[in-house]
Amino acid sequence: MSGELWLRDARLPGGRRGDIAIRDGRVAAIGAMTSAAANAQVIHAGGCLVLPGFVDGHAHLDKTLWGLPWHSHRAGPTIAERIDNERRVLRALDLSPQAQSARLVRHMVSRGTTHVRTHVDVAPELGLAHLHAVQAMAESLHEAIDVQVVAFPQCGVMTRPGTLDLLDQAAREGAQVIGGLDPIGIDGDLNGQLDAIFAIAARRGCDIDIHLHDLGEAGAATIEKIAERTATLGLRGRVAVSHAFCLGMLDEPRLEALIDRLLDNDIALMTHAPAGGVPFPPIRLLAARGVRLFTGSDGVRDAWGPLNSGDMLERAYLLAYCSGFRDDAGLELTLGMATHGGASVVRVAPYGIEVGAPADLVLVEAENEAEAVALHPPRRLVLKRGKVVARDGQASMTALDSRLRGNDMAAP
Ligand SMILES: [Zn+2]
Q1: 32 C-alpha vs ligand 1 centroid, how far in Å?
Q2: How many angstroms does the Cα of residue 213 sit away from the middle of ligand 1?
Q3: Rounded to 5 degrees, what are φ and ψ at 362?
Q4: What's the 324 CA to ligand 1 centre distance in angstroms?
Q5: 298 CA distance to ligand 1 middle (Å)
């Protein structure tokens, strides 16, 4: 085997049809080409649209109930009630976070995801068990997906003594990102939580990604304080805020002032378009102002709810649907959040359909990106570093399959 793969007759960015030559896992050439090396593998794309591998910028792999019998959702409506319910469910089920995260990753790969940022629970009653489990999963499945781990204090920081030491230890043991959670709503200590997690990130060279569900002025004040610390500690471009529901409910002057703070510090925003009428950031306005936007699945079929699917093309559709986008530019914007926006946050470069980038590619039957989002059709082929990892919606990588059999799992 020469290590060379040719995708013949694919629909390329811009709509023209052509070929992609892949050598040693990277895109080597794009365009109309005449002859492949004699021993190159050739895959006929049949005019399918080629997209960059999807980036799921916000997942919770360690807590999924994927592959298990149906779990009826019974949590109360508040964040605190959902956290308590999740603790009860996970204690009762006593699942393996390594096996569960592998199950979900297999599904995500089958849907075209080639990179994932996952928030992994770190708490005194868990220690770093979930972190170690997800790291082991990521190592065993690295041929199929790149996993970036956020050490995530799901139960609070200042109100849970011992959590800060665990976050610091997680950073020393390989977590690339330090998480946070509603400093006002959960901890009641805006400055305390932010000072503590920013100090760890600055000391350990980690990025930061903070869950912010707090609404209205509580959320707005939190974003201001996040921006202040980002500037003070020189973490420009390395901080993200996830959800930021408050940005969907502020008056224009307040929103504009916060957008300026986000831009000053190149703070990225994650939204997955929450269900049930919860406000969420105005995507088109933020993108037009230049705010970096990305998206993710959030919890997939877990104790927080059963509706998220782990399919980033469907996620782009949902973002467009909930935002009321109908035009091509709007649909392309949401796809961009699931591709290049996410790649910038997990800091993958080069990325995309360009010579020299790793050949992380997805083929779908669509005329263009807008149609791919509108239809979110089956993934015909998924390549990770130039190797086929899924075909026709099924993860197909040999190493992946054998490792999953080793974990005694059937395909979900
Ligand atoms: Zn989350």
Answers
A1: 43
A2: 10
A3: -130, 135
A4: 23
A5: 5
pLDDT digits (tens, 9 = 90+) for 353-408: 999 999 999 999 999 999 999 999 999 999 999 999 999 989 986 545 554 444 43
Give the alpha-carbon dihedral of 88, 90, 92, 95, to 10 degrees.
Answer: 180
CA of 271 to the centre of ligand 1 (A): 10
Q: Which residues contact 114 (CB under 8 A, 6 or more apart)?
A: 53, 54, 55, 145, 146, 360, 362, 382, 384
| Residue 212 alpha carbon to ligand 1 centre in Å | 9
Count the neighbouring beta carbons within 10 Å of the beta carbon of residue 2. Answer: 12
- How wide is the angle at C-alpha 279 spanned by C-alphas 216 and 331, nearest 5°? 140
pLDDT of residue 141: 95
Distance between CA atoms of 243 and 345, rounded to whole angstroms? Answer: 15
* H-helix or E-strand spanning residue 197: helix 190-204
Using 50 as the pLDDT threshold, list the residues of the chain that sit under it: 1, 399, 403-412
Query: What does the pLDDT read at residue 1?
Result: 45
CA of residue 342 to ligand 1 center, whole Å: 15
Centre of ligand 1 from the C-alpha of residue 299, in Å: 6
Reference 235, options 163, 166, 293, 178; nearest CA is 178
Q: DSSP assignment of 124-172, as one string?
A: TTTBTHHHHHHHHHHHHTTTT-EEEEEEE-TT-STTSTTHHHHHHHHHH
**What is the predicted pLDDT for the residue at 401?**
54
Distance 287 CA to ligand 1 centre (A): 22
pLDDT at 80: 84
Spacing, Cα 151 to ligand 1 middle (Å): 12
* Residue 410 confidence (pLDDT): 33
Rg (CA), the chain: 21
Whether the CB-CB separation of 320 and 287 falls below 8 Å is answered with no
Identify the pLDDT of residue 397: 62
The pLDDT of residue 39 = 81
DSSP state of 305: B
Q: What pLDDT score does 75 carry?
A: 82
- Rounded distance from Cα 156 to ligand 1 centre (Å): 13
